[in-house]
Amino acid sequence: MAKPKIEPRLPKGMRDFLPQEMIKREYVFNIVREVFHLYGFEPLQTPVLELHETLMGKYGEDAEKLIFNAQHPGGKEELALRYDLTVPLARVVAQYQNEIPIPFKRYQLSPVWRAERPQRGRYREFYQCDADIVGVTGMGADAEILSLITTALTRLGFQQFSVKVNNRKLLTAIGEYAGAEGDQLAELYRSIDKFDKVGAEGVREELVKRGVQADVVTRIMELVTARHPGLEQLNFLEEVMGNLPAAQAAIRELRELADHLNAANVPANFYEFDLTMVRGLGYYTGPIFETVITEPNLGSVTGGGRYDDLVGLFRGESLPTTGTSLGIERIIDLLDILKLYPPHIGGTVVQVMVTVFGDDTRAASTAFAADLRTAGVRTELYMLDKQIGKQMTYADKKRIPLVAVLGSQEIADGTVKLKRLADGEEVTVNRAEAPAKISELLS
Amino acid sequence: MAKPKIEPRLPKGMRDFLPQEMIKREYVFNIVREVFHLYGFEPLQTPVLELHETLMGKYGEDAEKLIFNAQHPGGKEELALRYDLTVPLARVVAQYQNEIPIPFKRYQLSPVWRAERPQRGRYREFYQCDADIVGVTGMGADAEILSLITTALTRLGFQQFSVKVNNRKLLTAIGEYAGAEGDQLAELYRSIDKFDKVGAEGVREELVKRGVQADVVTRIMELVTARHPGLEQLNFLEEVMGNLPAAQAAIRELRELADHLNAANVPANFYEFDLTMVRGLGYYTGPIFETVITEPNLGSVTGGGRYDDLVGLFRGESLPTTGTSLGIERIIDLLDILKLYPPHIGGTVVQVMVTVFGDDTRAASTAFAADLRTAGVRTELYMLDKQIGKQMTYADKKRIPLVAVLGSQEIADGTVKLKRLADGEEVTVNRAEAPAKISELLS
């Protein structure tokens, strides 16, 4: 064979997931899928390649520079790799209008591509995980999304988190209340959005620097620094801004949302009304949600809200939609940081490795491995002609929890020696009893 | 909102998978993953985008015309969408030489892209599903692959199938035996490969037409039409060709393979030695496998074999490898044709829909839905303000098996009325007993 001329390497910003990493990812994916199903969200999958025209004009010019184009020699269509999961959803609800029942509750867990400058924790191919409810105006839908988030995070093992809830309409109202509009209103949002980073004093300074009038700054700060628990926060807002129509609508929505959450037994410590939470995306029209891991403070893991105008885009109508993205790549990393992966989500899918001493014992080992598999035990049969020491080293390197040793003595006796590598625990049992013993040793 | 200017449509050869279809696909994917894990195959995932140079020179010119290229504005790397899962495997085993334990048993279940002319059952984005064992020369590895195939197909519900086993070396030997070499040998393979389509007489005619000498044709036909059961087939080959070194090696390998299969209790009716099975790909070096569904005759669902020279490509060495592709897209279709999807793999993930009569009963319905979810029941809470009849129609259209009705009477009584849509069976139970009753009604 010729010497290799091509160096094995990846494109910029791309990753391979070797088994150890994949096993963690699939653990997270499976929990998330299970919770989606529990709430009646159905799986949807769209192709990686979309028509270029489907994606253009949806994300803004800066974002659209990051889209990967695709083409095959002689191809006539202009194609592009999917940039998010929302535009494909919009295309789907228009394209299959007669087949899709409304409400349409779908999730999609798929990679997207963005040619951003790669940096720590940011890649050019990464998974997004979106759940949305299309076709419902009532706050019951928003409550389902919020309940879904708390269940998913709880099942993943997070204990200290908070879904921050705000309402786009409330931000408009704050602007009215404070006498800010147009560009000034947008700047005001951007400044409030920095609350987490720069604190109240920082926001105040920034507003002043932006030329916002002193009395307006004072009014805004009064509102955004208010931290009343639960519904008291809404009462406070009503007192202060209840005369503004936008605020009335916003507060009414949030009250309804709170009623639904209460009825659904969503623990009140898992969410809070926070006026400083401003989602960056301009397309939201109602309640918005963002979840932060609070203890330790590890930032945001979900983002979403109600966006009634985007999903109907290809249908040429407004189509009420609310939903959330789970920051699935971030969640996968956080489970490592917080040590939330269960012990069996280690380096391998294998539960037991069966050793092979040599040609004279191979058939017995092969038969035993087959029996274990029939009993549902995830089994690797060792396959190289190596000494037992090397076989153990291999099992250890792969972090296989148990090794089953079948030497000529065990074969003659109808037994097998099971060895747990973590603590060296060893036990010899009849082969028929092995599956039960294995399950005991693994637990 | 402006009228839509962009028609919602897909690129040529691409598909959306709406929930009904996705549920079937995930059912198949899950079974296949479970069986891979049972055999100790570990999940691997490589990125969709590879460097163009990684893919080039591996598949042959005609194939390489079908590769989709990708690029982002200003990007300097030449990228391409993955064309198969074997070249990425070869890249990975070279790139992570020190991290990957040998034997490396990996599977990958991922889409690939090929710009072929779309036709019935052929798409430009489709899933491949490969399991390979890297680093083992012994036939134990090939036997594992074959055992894996039979278990996977059995678990999927296939009952009548046959893994046809041949050996590339045997085909070389047949050439020697028949005095055919070079181009003539290649033509001979191509003709034998048509056996399934044109039968023995067709192959004979084609060989004659190709100008193969009459006595050579007779000898070849004697070999390829031999149909001895099990090991007798190998005995026959040994009698006829035992004096040729290539045949000796091939027959020795197949005998070893049969020994392993026997030790692993792989039912002998699931495989046969078939000299007319010639895998198209030129890179095989040892045993080759192809599975056909026999009753009814529905063609091939797996293909694979030993290819010792490809996976070491980027390492510049030969690296023994054996494996199989499951034709996962074909399998998904066949399960429909053969009606092998279990009844619960219907149109929806939802097991129960909870109706909502109106604002006065909404809280109770919401609380009940939350309780069902806590008990693990996949539950949809109806969300539009529609009459009960419309709610039933929606449940029916979505093929939700059960509806839970909570009217004011049931709320007062602490009960719920469960209705099974398939047969109209109705029962009213205490709400605390609902999860158990639901599981009974679903089974």
- Tell how many strands the DSSP assignment of chain A holds: 16
Average pLDDT of chain A: 93
Uncertain residue segments of chain A: none
CATH structural architecture of the domain at 352-442 in chain A: 3-Layer(aba) Sandwich
Compute the CA-based radius of gyration of chain A: 28 Å
State the separation between the terminal residues of chain A, measured CA to CA: 48 Å
Number of helices of chain A: 16
CATH topology of the domain at 352-442 in chain A, what is it called?
Rossmann fold
Assembly form of the protein: homodimer
Main β-sheet description of chain A: 8 strands, mixed
Shape of chain A: elongated
Into which percentage range does the β-strand content of chain A fall? 15-25%
Helix content percent band of chain A: 40-55%
In CATH, the homologous superfamily of the domain at 352-442 in chain A goes by the name: Anticodon-binding domain
Specify which chain pair forms the largest interface: A-B, 119 and 119 residues
Order of strands, main sheet of chain A, comes to: 1-5-6-11-10-9-7-8
Structural class of chain A: alpha+beta
| CATH structural class of the domain at 352-442 in chain A | Alpha Beta
